[in-house]
Design brief:
Layout: H1 2-7, E1 25-28, E2 31-36, H2 51-64, E3 71-82, E4 92-102, E5 105-113, E6 119-132
Antiparallel strand pairs: 1-2, 2-4, 3-6, 4-5, 5-6
Amino acid sequence: MVEEVRNDWCFACGKANPIGLKMEFAESDGKYMSFFVPGPQHQGYEGTLHGGIISTLLDEVMGRYHCVRGLKAVTARLETRFRRPTPLGQQLTVSGWVVRERGKLIEMAGTIALPDGTITAEGKATLIVSGTIDPEAYRPG
């Protein structure tokens, strides 16, 4: 499938991108989720995840959720709130969910949590629906 092959180079989820994050996804209870263990190559300040990677994780989980719903959507606005440093070497749970839909605009929220449930970052995004796609190419699993 052409769409899937092009997206194999996505920095966040692409399997073919040698320097990408290779995120994988699951859908549960109205949330879209990914689990990610940051390594030293993702570091900002010593021992902590770089803020740009944190924003990327949130953007991807909030934006990609619409692909499994059959919608092509792009991020128009992204806001990241850094609540505390996100350490390296721990499995992070990255979650995104729909807050509100109005016509072609979708408002999303998201979080990054440590294994003990501590939230290290929160995100808000506004997406614009620009068309439809084959959702089967994006289903988790």
